[in-house]
């Protein structure tokens, strides 16, 4: 299974499939454009890496997906099941409606009875089959002595079918078979929309998680072998290549390198690591290969402890009641009381059980929450579809409502507002000669600072100087000989310079004083726009970072952020967010690192970029799919609109009920009126949701 | 009115045929990739001969 984020047209489908099919060992390949994935059936010896390379050569970005994490079959089955019931309900509703039209337009006597009997023959099996999700949910709620939205739904369906059957048997005038099945149809439509939004968000989130296939290179007596991280035990030796993420907590036994702790701590400067130093899971090895002895694997790693913090914080957030639940809480008892009162009233007045039951059924049908069941899912589907096209993925059903309430935005710095990729800042102050030597040295290294320097210098048209005996000293820098002199590019202490508080590398030519090449972290595209837009919306903006004070405050000035907190530890970040919440603020947290994870989970609502660590993404409610930050401001606007639409929809649904209920209680509601009220209210609610586009 | 006796079964039968067709499509996974299928029809890979 491969992820293909870049494909978008018929040409891409053909290109990808042709490239894959041309690879020896591939039996079948099929692209799914909707999911942006390719499923490949191949011999065992064909590796996913080989296939991604084939595609990359053909010009398509491709990533391996872990099919174990994906496991979407379960979701699919539920969606398919709902769709099947929806189709049956639609079929039955149309046929019963057709027959009912004859009755409404004045069929009499035996013709009417026949129509009713045929309707019953279609509607009863259909209602039994289609309504199953409601009955199951209502029953499980009743068993724990609670009321949910499905209880009045089930009662209305059963009562409508029951009284209609009785009426038909006694050749009565009114039968509500069409209403019962239409109720099923509209509510199933709402359920299906709801399910689809959730399932597509969930599958995309799973896809993000599946991108990081957790593997490690274990060194054993037999040599090197690639194993899954879960198989590692304490005492194993693991090889970590430059550029790779460290899979476990451990001690370095061999090799020297620099490691990037930005995701764990938010520091933007790489740290040195040599034999005896401790490293933790989630850090990235930069320059030299390292051999790490495992001290903690799997559940015991620092990474997992942070994940535990997340679980605790998330449990707190689950207390949020969605708008739909609030409505259901008011609604379910209200409807029952109303219909019982109507039934009692009519029974006292007429002493006729048949009439009073008929009235009760009519009240339940008229008030039944077709529109309420559609009101929220229709809006969330429209809104999340809109945001998905802008590159924002909503993972949680209530995230949109919570986002609309946010009044304070807390940003992380490294990797969130910045790309986490450095850019050389003051190249103009150096001589041409130094720059060309620097390029010659930087080319030889895979260190991120060296790579950034190389690409920046190449862009300026600098030509590399001729160097001899270029060697990389892992953990220190690059060394070479230039015209008989030793030249070095690397750490401050190595070339004998004083370490400044900004990210920098040093160039030393011969015995001359070292030159400083300092770096700034480049701003994420869209960050300025997002901040300006959020400011215009009157939100309170706060920057919080684990980085040093100097780096953070300079950065905040360029963006115009006033409230800044630097050198914050992961627990402090979470505590700060909790404090803000305690003061009554609704916090939107935007962050990417492991050090943000607890804060992301503690916040009222949270967003992380796709480049964030797995744990951070799973802790947040929304994920930014692109590099651009500007969708955040849009998301807030859309969420506010969506919430407004949901409220409008509730109002609309209530108005319909208020208008129609007196008819029902007065005994004037005919099946025709019930059908009209139900359909119009459902339609208006759906159309109102579509206005969001 | 006698015609009703014929028409109602006929309409029900046609509806059931449609329903059965829908179930068949659902089972065969024809709704898995709506966007891809919309694009697939435009490419000319199998214009001359169907996929083997």
What attributes characterize this protein structure?
heterodimer; A: 693 residues; alpha+beta; Alpha-Beta Plaits; Calcium-transporting ATPase, cytoplasmic transduction domain A; Rossmann fold; seven-stranded mixed sheet; six-stranded antiparallel sheet; 25 helices; B: 52 residues; mainly alpha; 63% helix
Written account of the structure:
- The complex is a heterodimer of chains A (693) and B (52).
- Chain A has 693 residues and is an alpha+beta fold.
- In chain A, 54% of the residues lie in helices and 18% in strands.
- Among the domains of chain A are: 2-64, Alpha-Beta Plaits (2-Layer Sandwich); 215-300, Calcium-transporting ATPase, cytoplasmic transduction domain A (Distorted Sandwich); 381-420 and 524-640, HAD superfamily/HAD-like (Rossmann fold); 421-523, Calcium-transporting ATPase, cytoplasmic domain N (3-Layer(aba) Sandwich), CATH 3.40.1110.
- In chain A, helix 10 packs parallel to helix 22 (594-602).
- The longest helix of chain A is centred in the last third of the chain and has 35 residues, at 631-665.
- With 52 residues, chain B is mostly helical.
- The longest helix of chain B is centred in the N-terminal third of the chain and has 26 residues, at 2-27.
- Chain B is elongated and about 55 Å long.
- The termini of chain B are far apart.
- The model of chain B has no long low-confidence stretch (mean pLDDT 80).
- Chain A binds chain B through residues 9-11, 13-14, 18, 31-35, 80, 83-84, 87-88, 91, 94-95, 98-99, 111, 118, 122, and chain B through 1, 4, 8, 11-12, 15-16, 18-19, 22-23, 26, 31-36, 39-40, 42-43, 45.
Assembly form of the protein: heterodimer
The count of DSSP E runs of length 2 or more, i.e. the number of strands of chain B, is 0
Kindly report the greatest chain-chain contact and the residue count on each side.
A-B, 24 and 23 residues
| Structural classification of chain A | alpha+beta
> How many domains is the backbone of chain B divided into?
1
Order of adjacent strands in the largest pleated sheet of chain A: 14-26-25-24-15-22-23
Per DSSP, what share of the residues of chain A sits in E-state strands of 2 or more residues?
15-25%
Tell me the radius of gyration of chain A: 32 Å
Rg from alpha-carbon coordinates of chain B: 18 Å
CATH class descriptor name of the domain at 381-420 and 524-640 in chain A: Alpha Beta
- The average pLDDT of chain B is 80
Residue windows where pLDDT falls under 50 for at least 5 positions of chain B: none
CATH architecture of the domain at 381-420 and 524-640 in chain A: 3-Layer(aba) Sandwich
Cα distance, first to last residue of chain A? 33 Å
CATH superfamily of the domain at 381-420 and 524-640 in chain A: HAD superfamily/HAD-like
Q: Judging from the principal axes of the Cα atoms, what is the shape of chain A?
A: elongated
Q: Helical residue percent of chain B?
A: 55-70%
